[in-house]
From TrEMBL:
Region entry Disordered, spans: 1-24
Signal peptide: none
Catalytic reactions on record: tRNA(Glu) + L-glutamate + ATP = L-glutamyl-tRNA(Glu) + AMP + diphosphate
Database matches in InterPro entries: aa-tRNA-synth_I_cd-bd, aa-tRNA-synth_I_codon-bd_sub2, aa_tRNA-synth_I_cd-bd_sf, Glu-tRNA-ligase_bac/mito, Glu-tRNA-synth_I_codon-bd_sub1, Glu/Gln-tRNA-synth, Glu/Gln-tRNA-synth_Ib_cat-dom, GluQ/Sye
Name this polypeptide is given: Glutamate--tRNA ligase
Lineage of the organism: Bacteria, Bacillati, Actinomycetota, Actinomycetes, Kitasatosporales
Naturally occurring in which organism (per UniProt): Streptomyces chlorus
Keywords: Aminoacyl-tRNA synthetase, ATP-binding, Cytoplasm, Ligase, Metal-binding, Nucleotide-binding, Protein biosynthesis, Zinc
UniProt xrefs under Gene3D superfamilies: 1.10.10.350, Glutamate-tRNA synthetase, class I, anticodon-binding domain 1 (1.10.8.70), HUPs (3.40.50.620)
Amino acid sequence: MASAPGSPSPKSSTTLGQGVPPRVRFCPSPTGNPHVGLVRTALFNWAFAKHHQGSGAQFVFRIEDTDAARDSEESYNQLLDAMRWLGFDWDEGPEVGGPHAPYRQSQRMDIYADVAGKLLDAGHAYRCYCSQEELDARREAARAAGKPSGYDGHCRELTDAQVEEYKAQGREPIVRFRMPDETITFTDLVRGELTFTPENVPDYGIVRANGAPLYTLVNPVDDALMEITHVLRGEDLLSSTPRQVALYKALTELGIAKRTPAFGHLPYVMGEGNKKLSKRDPQASLNLYRERGFLPEGLLNYLSLLGWSLSADQDIFTIEEMVAAFDVSDVNPNPARFDLKKCEAINADHIRLLDVKDFTERCRPWLKAPVAPWAPEAFDEAKWQAIAPHAQTRLKVLSEITDNVDFLFLPEPVFDETSWTKAMKEGSDALLRTAREKLDAADWTSPESLKEAVLAAGEAHGLKLGKAQAPVRVAVTGRTVGLPLFESLEVLGKETTLARIDAALAKLAA
């Protein structure tokens, strides 16, 4: 258990000394779909490296795939695709290579076996023959006595006779790291000075009985061999940090590590009910945001605010502005709550910041089969180019473009019956007939002329523009809300608009 001094301690510097270029890493496991908490971790590491690029900083991308039962090649490919979509380039890693290859742990097993053997030979680790039943019984007894329930060191000092007896029983040992009997203190880049006492950090397993290395070994060994200087990771891994600090000391003694990296533990991302956002939460999946049409720029802008900010009064900024200002010591250690509505609002701002040509191209996936409900040959490029500037100001996510422009490419509008009932009040037929007459006589090269026509129709029936245009909008687009009406009518064209008003009149008469 960690304890902190009564007053906050100064946070550690982001440099490790003159002449040591910063090196950070992002090391996900290829299990399931990438989630937003993972993306936030990648973002902070990548931004850190880019910010210190002038000092020779490098960003290492490593795949931790030692869990054969859960890891998959599909998830591995999704990770690479996600990194590309987000715009994260890496200096070393899969598809790039580098001096510390390979960058997939499943291809580094001989390295881990060699390091485990050296730790055993030097007395930093030992073989533990305790059965799971024995461990559970002793832990339960410790809890009942009000003592820490971690491993009690039973196999720390076995005699040769005891070892032989265990072997005769057919027991297969795991390998445990021998934690030093001393308090471990380190300065966290985010949280300041943290202290862990020996009774709260017991010896821990680093190799399974079948010889497979555990995360507790492979992660710090790879960080050591890849000369990682700064480890920025989630708060959920904080309890394992004193173990790694002790292991680094042993690895340094053995000449495997050059130094202990600086650690910075990023705050939890909280979901609904102030619970930690888990991979199982629907709103955690990165694929969901891609499918809905979030921009990488918008999503990254929002995720950066989960623990960091550019300034107190600026929520919208580019990734370049973030990189220029990012300092891990500015990260807030308090949990950050994921707010989907704010995420959408920030994404909407980034959509509006796009160049119109860029916007029209980014919408393409939602304008064609199988997403779009209209026939491919019904899509009209000229109409799309004309309506795009008006659509750009209305979207929160790109996927909304389909419903906003479907009236242009479908043979008839898709009526929402609730909208129809809401808009078509008593007298709407008379209003529509007048509006048709005025629109037929209007100048169709000017949306202002079309507005004047509907305004005049409304005045003829004692209605203001807002109430007068509602039946026209539903008749033509099928919805009560949408893109600017008169610009939409201009793009749709006179013939189609009048035909749809006629169809709405027939529907009302029926």
